[in-house]
Write a structure and sequence with these properties.
alpha+beta, Rossmann fold, 12 helices, globular
Length: 652
């Protein structure tokens, strides 16, 4: 039973002090500037609890960049901040044991490969020792494969690579393009490789290990043919228990379930299934009220069991199949007032839990629940606004595309406004991906534009994820055509509803969204008044031709764009660089020169094609990557776009 809502029941004084210092630091650094408030990194962005529940790690930003804060939940040890490294950005972290935290740092480096010098984003795992306070680098680009329970200072780390690439020396290459996968037992105290646990003997893209480091499954893929197979890795020769052809998207294994006798695996079309690790037999997860094809399993790694399922409608949702956890979540939902309440982290015996709670368009609240003391207290809020209404008013919509397909999306209105107090000047803001989606969660970029007086439309156009395989397939072949028309239809819908001003509107987006904004100005040239593109694709076929991507990835993209060997005339239709002379609207083009997802060369191609036009501004963002993961990059984007909007599409 949860006795009451209070942080004092379980938060030590030092923990509350550090939370207060984080708040003071952020407020002092932000000042009163509106841009800084929206551009700031989240105050809390992830959380995990050690297996025995003695320590809590949270993603934090006390100095304005992503760092990690560690709190002692049972003793008097002062909180610790693991600082952000120079030239790197912190991302995920977890506790493989009670004594060590493993976190990941992303860095951009130029290295020599078989194809020449290439700039790549590397993922560097790092171990942190609670006892010594020291961090040690682990094997670059590796990921945690097993906690190796019973050995507090050892874990199994797995790395997969192309054998003729940057790390091809680890295994003798059989032929160019072969995969290699190695699993090492790593010493968390010094970062050294203790021994090699597993090495691939075929086209292995990954192994499934149990908690003791024993190999259960060997997962293989032939990039040339698209053949995917799973081999049982018990005693004796490995035998195939499953195979199928997946030319553009492979199945995803979530982990061992049913006490280790099966894995949860999601297939591109069929969705989530259970696979027996001895026979390969597939059975359904059947849960009333949940579309399993769109759901992910909630796996308790400690018990190797599926305890529930998560999915997203407008906000994240959970449904626990474990009766005790289902009852616990229901009780928490009765106490907290937010619309979406989910359990995001827990210790081994589920006595301490991190709760995330959300309302539409509002920053996420993070809570810590201690069942032993009965305390439920607020850890922190994702973003702290002095005025709760500053984030704008966000709501979901569904409109009909011109061919009759229902298109879901989200509209963010200026603070304090409603659809009845419009119309408002409109910014259409498509998401990246394109196989991703927007949700009803707080969006710092959209909220900033809303704070300036704009209505912001974020359509989940056909091809987006989250609405089933048929909806994704509806976008195939429509990369720069039908998917863009869905955006135009959304603008018309809001205009006809009286929410948006009739006539002209602006388009803004990043990555594919930046490309879509550029294509909007070509397909709806009469009404698009301006374009803001960050890290936008400007020549999709040039990316594919120059890329070292796998055949699988190229086949995936060709589903959307059409063949990279198609006619020049067909390709030009969906290529902004080839149609640069057709732009009538003012353009603001921004791109980070450390972008390894959409290469910076895409920025240069469009700049060269457009030339010197007084209403087109190109901004090279020095040191910025693709993901706007630091406040300086975000502030540059917001500052540049505000000035651009004031000149070319003012809200007044």
């Amino acid at each position: 039973m949860i006795e009451g809502v209070t942080a004092d029941r379980f938060l030590g004084e030092s923990m509350r002090i550090l939370v207060g210092l984080i708040l003071a630091s952020l407020l002092a650094g932000q000042g009163a500037a509106q841009i800084d408030q929206f551009a700031a990194m989240p105050r809390i962005w992830h959380a995990d609890i050690s297996p025995n529940g003695s320590h809590l790690a949270t993603g934090c930003s006390p100095r304005g960049v992503r760092e990690i804060c560690i709190y002692d939940l049972v003793g008097d040890t002062a909180p610790v901040v693991i600082p952000a490294p120079d030239g790197g950005e912190m991302s995920a972290f977890s506790w493989p044991s009670d004594e060590y935290l493993v976190y990941y740092v992303h860095t951009v480096q130029t290295m020599r490969t078989s194809g020449g010098l290439r700039t790549r984003t590397l993922s560097q795992p790092v171990s942190y020792s609670l006892a010594t306070g020291r961090s040690n680098l682990l094997l670059v680009n590796s990921s945690l494969a097993s906690p190796l329970i019973g050995t507090s200072d050892r874990v199994a780390m797995e790395i997969t690579f192309l054998l003729d690439d940057t790390q091809g020396g680890l295994i003798r290459a059989r032929q160019p393009g072969d995969f290699g996968t190695v699993v090492y037992e790593m010493n968390l105290e010094n970062g050294g490789r203790a021994r090699r646990l597993e090495v691939s003997s075929g086209q292995t893209i990954g192994f499934v290990l149990d908690q003791n480091g024993e190999t259960i499954l060997d997962v293989r893929y032939d990039d040339d043919t698209g053949e995917f197979s799973i081999l049982q890795a018990g005693p004796g020769p490995r035998r195939e228990i499953y195979s199928g052809n997946y030319p553009s998207e492979t199945p995803r294994i979530f982990g061992l379930v049913d006490g280790g006798s099966a894995v949860a695996i999601s297939f591109p079309v069929e969705g989530l299934r259970r696979m027996n690790v001895e026979t390969g037999a597939l059975t359904d997860f059947s849960v009333p009220g949940v579309d399993i094809a769109r759901a992910n399993p909630i796996v308790d790694d400690y018990a190797m069991s599926v305890v529930g399922f998560s999915y997203t409608d407008d906000l994240p949702r959970q449904m626990f199949t474990n009766p005790e956890l289902a009852g616990l979540l229901a009780e928490i939902q009765q106490i907290l007032t937010e619309d979406s309440v989910t359990i995001s982290a827990w210790n081994a015996d589920w006595t301490k839990l991190v709760i995330e709670a959300r309302d539409m368009g509002r920053p996420t609240n993070y809570y810590l629940l201690d069942l032993a003391s009965g305390g439920l207290g607020l850890l922190d809020v994702e973003v702290q606004f002095s005025n709760a209404e500053a984030a704008g008013v966000r709501s979901s919509i569904v409109y009909e595309a011109s061919d009759g397909l229902a298109i879901p999306g989200y509209v963010t209105l200026p603070p304090g406004q409603t659809s009845q107090t419009g119309p408002f000047p409109l910014i259409v803001m498509p998401h990246g991906g394109p196989q991703s989606r927007d949700t009803g969660e707080y969006d710092w970029w959209a909220s900033f534009y809303a704070s300036l007086g704009y209505a912001v439309l974020q359509p989940n156009f056909r091809g987006s994820s989250g609405y089933g395989h048929e909806f994704v397939e509806a976008g195939h072949g429509g990369f720069g055509t039908r998917m863009i028309d869905d955006l135009i239809d959304g603008a018309r819908y809001l205009q006809n509803a009286g929410i948006a001003d009739p006539g002209s509107y602006c388009a803004a987006g990043a990555s594919y969204g930046g490309y879509a904004a550029l294509m909007l100005a070509l397909r709806d040239s009469e009404d698009v008044a301006c374009v803001i593109s960050f890290a936008g694709v400007t020549d999709p076929f040039a990316i594919m031709e120059s890329s070292s991507a796998l055949d699988t990835e190229l086949r995936y993209w060709e589903q959307y764009t059409g063949s990279r060997y198609g006619s020049s005339a067909e390709q030009a239709v969906i290529t902004p660089v080839e149609r640069a002379g057709e732009y009538r609207a003012p353009l603001l083009i921004l791109h980070g020169n450390q972008d390894t997802t959409v290469p910076f060369g895409q920025f240069r191609l469009l700049r060269d094609a457009i030339g010197n036009r007084p209403d087109v501004r190109f901004v090279e963002m020095d040191g910025a990557d693709h993901y706007l993961g630091n406040p300086d990059a975000r502030a540059t984007l917001l500052r540049e776009s505000q000035a651009f909007l004031e000149e070319h599409f003012p809200a007044d």
